[in-house]
Design goal:
7 helices, 11 strands, Rossmann fold, alpha/beta, 27% helix
């Protein structure tokens, strides 16, 4: 049974509830998950050989961007150690699977390599999101294994805008706030070394993760991540 480590936690989001819901969904397709809130401990565990996949469903960064974060810094602010950074990069490059959800793109803001692995990152002063609202999510690449059998769907969620891409992205899903607005990538998949990476910008709440089509997408994304590189499914 593949083993997944879910790193979760941070402010403004019900991460514990969402992480538990994700773990239950992935268990249905034969993936066992452990939950962890300590960033350094999670990255250190990647070298044990016990995990095939890491899920980052967290909001952890230095929190220097606005005074409103001051009350949270003592508990939640973080700058990942050099050892932690190396452990994560090595895990994926050697063939590990990485699933980044929602606020994962905001995490680890003083570590450029995180954006390089994920494919994009939040850029303060550029990236933004409106309040959660019903979104129409469009399938951009129905031929990709992650999107097999998936059609356009609606979900209530935050919509991240203007992320800073660190590589050429091939979106599998997109959404737009209005009919005339520019589409924003909602999910992409990529190789990194011998490993695979999926980033899903959705997931503000457990209800988004449990929306039936989104739930199926996450299951199929996890199975694609865990498949040997060069194949479409396990």
């Amino acid at each position: 049974m593949p083993q997944n480590l879910i790193l979760h936690g941070g402010i403004y989001h019900p991460f514990a509830e969402g992480a538990a819901a994700l773990a239950a969904s992935l268990a249905e397709c034969g993936i066992r998950s452990e939950l962890e809130t300590d960033v350094e401990a999670a990255f250190a565990r990647l070298g044990s050989g016990d995990f095939d996949m890491l899920t980052v469903y967290a909001l952890r960064w230095r929190m220097l961007d606005h005074e409103k974060y001051t009350p949270f810094r003592a508990e939640h602010a973080i700058s990942v150690s050099a050892a932690g950074r190396a452990a994560l990069e090595d895990f994926v490059a050697r063939g590990g699977a990485l699933l980044g959800l929602h606020t994962a793109c905001i995490c680890f803001d003083d570590w450029p390599g995180w954006g390089d692995v994920l494919g994009a990152r939040w850029r303060w002063g550029q990236s933004f999101h409106p309040q959660p609202q019903p979104l129409r999510v469009h399938v951009e690449d129905a031929a990709h294994p992650i999107c097999a059998g998936i059609t356009d769907f609606e979900v209530e969620d935050e919509m991240f805008h203007d992320l800073e891409a660190t590589t050429t992205l091939h979106p599998l899903l997109s959404a737009r706030m209005t009919a005339n607005a520019a589409p924003q990538p909602m999910l992409w998949a990529r190789d990194y070394g011998a490993g695979r990476v999926v980033y899903d910008a959705l997931g503000h709440t457990a209800s988004s993760l449990q929306e039936p089509t989104h739930r199926r997408l996450l299951q199929q994304a996890a199975l694609w991540l865990l498949a040997p590189t060069g194949t479409s499914s396990p």
